[in-house]
Write a structure and sequence with these properties.
ten-stranded mixed sheet, Purple Acid Phosphatase, chain A, domain 2, binds zinc ion
């Protein structure tokens, strides 16, 4: 009897010690910031409770502007002619950048422009990579009459996009018809040939409004709709029609437009699908979000069953909101551009850009975690932002996000994390 009870106590005690050691060692593997996050952040708390294999992580960013100056440093630069009032050649933007940050050894590799962003993409290995492609890909010289700022990348430079394994390009923006219908058609053909999916522009309205489906094996599907709004400078006559190529235009954020999207979503959305509305809207500079944008975003979530609003057009990041568990990125900011030497808007720091990594529960479409990795553009290349610059972004976003009930934490390795 005595030996029976001592055996029980011995076994129990041994197991308890084991559990204690396991718990203690696991606790110690979390960094200080991770401990803080797990106790403070709703999203992070939930993420620990859910099986990681059922989560979907998306990489999202704003404008990828590989035309103009950037095209000129890639292996196959196109015709540099511009029709801007002060700049007549795209090489001028290379000169401006070099004056600020030193010489760029041309030609650069196709992957050069992504710099440290590639390291981060490799490390996180998101399930899908989603960008707004803010340039045409064409040799066309037939510019849109009256349009001054024109973007084109030579089609032989397409590897500048594919080298970052981009899955999807939003095309409904204010540059996709810069080089007229020929330019648009060559852009679509080049992306198709390179197996890069796109939405938001097409040979007719039916094609321009058709969403893209990205299958994530064993996890679910991402369905992406792309829209352009005249508030971002998309000309009204760029709207695609039944018999005319062009852009999937949102005219006025009306009830009709919400209902149209609802009908499209109802036709396609199944359990486990994440629906993204990628919208090019609003001005280039400033942090204020028009009331109509906020209402439209929430209506899309409430009435059209959209799960993520991927907003872009602003040259710098704008506030972030979480509405009923769904992520609203009002403006992701530029991600890659040739603006280094352009003065006038320094207070917005458009050299600082963000990689958005959104982890979503595909069963509910709710955001579990949003991590943002700050980058700085130098010599047309993305570099990890330093601590001071990451904190600058954190402070600006905190100032602006307060109105939307969100805040931004910073980790010891300069990543920004959304709190809501
Ligand atoms: Zn734009």
């Amino acid at each position: 009897m005595k030996s029976f009870w001592s055996r029980i106590f011995f076994t129990l005690g041994y197991n308890l010690i084991g559990i204690f050691i396991l718990f203690f060692t696991q606790s110690c593997t979390y960094s200080e910031s991770e401990q803080k996050n797990s106790s403070e952040l709703n999203g992070t708390k939930e993420i620990h409770q859910q099986n990681a294999s059922s989560q979907i992580t998306l990489f999202l960013c704003g404008d990828v502007m590989t035309g103009r100056g950037i095209d000129q440093v890639l292996p196959f630069p196109g015709d540099p002619t511009l029709y801007e009032s002060y700049m007549k050649t795209a090489e001028g933007y290379v000169d401006l950048a070099e004056e600020v940050n030193g010489p760029i050894s041309k030609p650069v590799d196709f992957s050069y422009i992504w710099g440290d962003a590639l390291t981060e993409l490799d490390r996180i290995n998101p399930d899908a990579r989603i960008i707004n492609l803010e340039t045409t890909i064409t040799k066309s010289n037939d510019f849109w009459p009256g349009k001054q700022v024109l973007y084109r990348m030579h089609p032989d430079n397409i590897k500048a996009i594919t080298s970052a394994k981009i899955d999807f390009c939003s095309l409904a923006n204010n540059h996709i018809l810069d080089w007229n219908y020929n330019g648009l058609i060559e852009t679509l053909e080049t992306l198709e040939k390179a197996n890069v999916k796109f939405a938001g522009a097409g040979l007719n309205i039916r094609k321009a409004e058709t969403p893209v489906i990205i299958e994530i094996p064993n996890k679910g599907r991402i369905i992406i709709f792309s829209f352009g709004s005249p508030t971002s400078g998309v000309p009204l006559n760029w709207a695609a029609k039944e018999d005319k190529p062009g852009v999937n235009l949102l005219l006025n954020f009306s009830e009709d437009e919400i209902r149209d999207l609802k009908e499209s979503v109802d036709l396609i959305k199944q359990q486990g699908d994440i629906v993204i509305a990628s919208i090019h809207w609003g001005s280039n500079w400033g942090y204020d979000i028009p009331k109509s944008h906020g209402e439209f975003a929430k209506n899309l979530i409430d009435k059209a069953r959209v799960d993520i609003i991927h907003g872009h057009s602003s040259h710098h990041p704008r506030p972030i909101e979480v509405y009923k568990g769904k992520l609203i990125l009002y403006g992701c900011g530029d991600f890659i551009n040739d603006y280094e030497g352009i003065g006038g808007y320094e207070q917005y720091r458009d050299d600082l850009t963000l990689m958005y990594f959104a982890t979503v529960d595909p069963t509910k479409g709710k955001i579990l975690n949003l991590k943002m990795v700050p980058m700085q553009i130098k010599k047309f290349k993305l570099n990890y932002a330093n601590n001071e610059d990451a904190k600058w972004l954190q402070n600006i976003l905190n100032r602006e996000c307060t109105k939307f009930g969100t805040q931004i934490a910073i980790t010891e390795n300069n990543n920004l994390v959304l709190k809501w």
